[in-house]
Amino acid sequence: MMSCKHPFDFFSPFGCIRVSGIWNFWNTQYTSESSDQETLMKKTFRELVIYLVFLIFVCIIAFGMASTNMYYYTKVMMDLFLDSESENHVSFRTVASAEDFWKFAEEPLLDGLYWDKWYNGDPLPPNTAGYIYYENRLLGVPRLRQLRVSTNSCTVNEEFETFISDCYAMYSEQNEDRNPFGRNVQDPNETAWVYQTQTELEGFSYWGKINAYSGGGFVKDLDLAKLRSQEYITYLKNSLWIQRGARALFVSFTVYNANINLFCVITLLVEFPATGGAIPSWSFNTVKLIRYVTTFDHFIMACEIIFVIFIAYYTVEEIIEIHVTGIKYFANLWNILDVGLVIISIMCIIFNIYRTSTIEAKLNDLLKDPLKYANFENLGFWEMRFNNTVAVTVFFAWVKIFKYISFNKTMTQLSTTLSRCAKDLLGFFIMFFIVFLAFTQLGYLLFGTQVQDFSTFMNSFFTLFRIILGDFNFYQLEQANRILGPIFFMLFVFFVFFVLINMFLAIINDTYSEVKSDMAKQTDLFIMSDYLKQGYGKIWDKLGTKREQLEDYEKILSTGKKMHFNDWKKQLLEQNFNEEEIEEVFAKYDIDGDRYLDPPEQQKMLAELQKLKTDLDATKKADANNFDDMLRDEDSDAEIEGGGDIVHSNEFLVLTRRVDRLESTLIGIVGNIES
């Protein structure tokens, strides 16, 4: 089979087809045929400029989605529904039993959901009904949902079977009770006693503190009126809706604030573990589901369109680079990061389209039936995951800048040090995690029944990380076990903190010293700072040439006599000016068109030439100051690294110009020889 060797050759039935023209726009350092360092640096610099523009749009979109109003909105809702207390001083945070939940539901929950009076007791006007804090519209009606487990879903020990007849296991979907219960026979039309599947409720799984729960269950929707909702809660309480076998109770509703265009999807969960009691948890997802309302929102939409164009550009670039380099492309960590960023960005674009279409459909359904439960749980959950993904994308997008930067030796030393000590670090981390996991299991088994920080394996794992950072509670360990607690603590600090952590630092320090020594000995490569210096030198050469031309003009005009165009042209041709420049300048100042430069016209030209010289000197001086600062930093690095002599910036520029002139002369000589 024929293979195409050129990076932009693609195989077809008609042979290799070279794709050029616009495809050269994606000609990067990986697809370039040139091995010249300066050429590769130019391509890298072009990639950096394009990527910085892309990063600006990414940041605009990301921070345009976020707002400090989200925090205050979440805080207001949490203070209202978590910290408001009943007459018996029960808040949602302090719910510890089914009885506490009903006390919370009858007072703080209903008072928070239904605001039918002003603070002075006057009734609210009809058009403000259904608002929380007079500003936040309650969408639809709140919903209560319960999950239960079946009777005898666990096995009772034979020795206790005679006086323990029922057994209710921890929650799992296999143990879930889907049979009607309670007052189902007396109230056959009441949904609270009949199980509905996750598909029927359009629900989704929820992860609580103890278990993950399905989206089905026994459901009771409240009403838009406070009195009616109070009757429902009283009915459920008196009918013993929460019985043995109840494992989770959800209170779900959504509010919308039009002032700041934000939704708050609220879920209050009370888990009833098999041990008895109740464990409360909650979720407040403040999200912006309606994206494009204000002028700034439409500006963000325009930035999103540009973002899509950038992603299309980078997608083509990655495909071309993979086509050129093959499987070797994925040997570079930066290339894997590039592909990951493109994939994550495409997923975000797809979700953005899905969210925009879904929210419109849900709002239309809600407007048709205001008494319907507004199910925004699924959308709110994925919107939060979307926001998290965007945050991670922005983080890695900033990290990716290191791929292009090689301004000085410090950057090169950092990357070289990490790559060179990678194998040593891998071996160290294997040893570290063996020791660390051993202490994790020891802490979980010793203190898991008494200390909350060690109550689960994951809690024990993160608690030991906190001990490394100095965040620990030694008194709890000592109280849990007066002998093994202090021994465990001292052994962990000695082996992990004093031994392993110092081994890690020793590996980094030794490798850094080796890299620093090697870089001091090797010949300097052409890095991006050299490319920028060369660009500055060329600019200064152009400024110097232009100033010499102005001085030549002044010499010719210094006689003060009336000058004909032919005399003007003859003298300037001797100064190596081209005829177009001579004609252009003469026509500009020959105001009367008589092909002579009169003394007044010459004076005007001299004045403008002097002004141009002054501007050029000022520009050159400003650039020289900036360039001197950059060179001074490079000189400092050179002095530290090599300890040799320092070349002053002015001497460096003189040498650079001499090399450029020598190069031009050699090019001319070679051309003559070839001719």
TrEMBL record:
Disulfide bonds join C154-C167. The chain crosses the membrane at residues 48-72, 248-269, 289-313, 333-354, 386-405, 425-445, 487-508. GO terms for molecular function: calcium channel activity; calcium ion binding. Residues 577-612 form the EF-hand domain. It is a multi-pass membrane protein. InterPro entries: EF-hand-dom_pair, EF_hand_dom, PKD1_2_channel, PKD_2, Polycystin, Polycystin_dom, Volt_channel_dom_sf. The keyword DNA-binding does not apply. GO terms for cellular component: ciliary membrane; cytoplasmic vesicle. It is found in: Cell projection, Cilium membrane; Cytoplasmic vesicle. It holds the Pfam family PKD_channel. Keywords: Calcium, Calcium channel, Calcium transport, Cell membrane, Cell projection, Coiled coil, Cytoplasmic vesicle, Disulfide bond, Glycoprotein, Ion channel, Ion transport, Membrane, Metal-binding, Transmembrane, Transmembrane helix, Transport. GO terms for biological process: detection of mechanical stimulus. Ca(2+) binds at D590, D592, D594, E601. Belongs to the polycystin family. PANTHER family: AT14535P-RELATED, POLYCYSTIN FAMILY MEMBER. This is EF-hand domain-containing protein. It comes from Candidula unifasciata.
